[in-house]
Every structure is written in C-alpha cells, then in structure tokens.
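Reviewer 2 asked us to include a model.

Predict the structure of this chain.
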Amino acid sequence: MYAAGDCTGDQQFTHYAGFQGAIAARNILLPLSDPGVKTGEVPGCTFTSPEVAHVGMKEAEAKAALGDGAVRTVVRNLKDMDRAICDGTDAAGGLVKIIFKAGDGAILGATIVAPVAGELISEIAVAMAGGVKMPEMASVMHSYPSYSLSIQTLAAGVYYEKLKGNAKLYNVLKKLGL
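Predicted model (structure tokens):
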C-alpha cells in the first residue's frame, strides 16, 4: 500500500506531500524501498510577514524527551542581525532559535521568525539530516551581510564556549585574534 499527502495523517505541507509522492512512486517502480524522510526533519513555514518556520523538536519537547540539562538553546534576535538592520526589518521582533544536545551539539530543532525564515530553515534541515553539529556549523562560511550569517554566529558562540573548557588553547587563539 502506498500513500502520500494529507491522507497519511502526517504533517500537511505541500512540499512534504510532493516528497512523499516521489518516494511512493520510486518504491512502486523500483524493487528497493526508500523510507523517505524522518518526520522530525520536515521543515515547515507559515508565509506571514515576517515568515515563521520550524523544523525538528521545540525546546519544551526536547527537554521533556532528554531532560533539562541535556538540552541547550541559542537565540539571535533580528535586531542584532546586520542584514535586518540594512533591510529595516530589525524592529519586526524576529529571531533564530536553535535547540541542540548539550553534550555533542547535535541539532534537535530550530524556530526562525524572519523575512526569509522559509529559506533559512532549510539550512538547519540539511544540517540535521547530515548529522552536522553546532560546533561544525561555525566553520561553514556564510556571506555578509546575510540573514543566514546568524546561524554561523550562533554556532561560533557554541564553538567558543567549548574552547573555553581548554583555557590554554582558548587564550592562545584569543591572542592570535581567532
């Protein structure tokens, strides 16, 4: 039996239904089956002004599943993003919020409220699907000024906090301006 879209009872997004349909067609035509995408990795966006996008677990869900101490959250407000300031959208009250595991930095989810949230959430979805962790996101170069730079900035903060655990290395890098 094959199904796609709203009849599955899963998340009701056009892009998800299209993806499910392609997987169903491939499974029908090819002898191997493709399990598709994990439900928690389906990005969604409400195209309001500003847009509101989400992927993965929300903070409360992550803490309920893993415990308060096992979950960390980082937030960057739109008013602190150079691109938002240039565009004049910095007063819109938007943000980028990423939820991740405290121990290894594995990304659990994200919520983004910004003019381009629907575009930005895909970067988080790709990172989650590829197992890219927060400290690794710091080494992915982003253009300046861009809304997506906020993701790299948040990841860099997590990376540098981790470095502070090794005070000698952190102080050497700080002296070098890195």
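The beta strands are 44-46, 51-56, 71-77, 95-101, 107-114. The chain has two domains: 1-36, 40-175. We have added this to the supplementary material.
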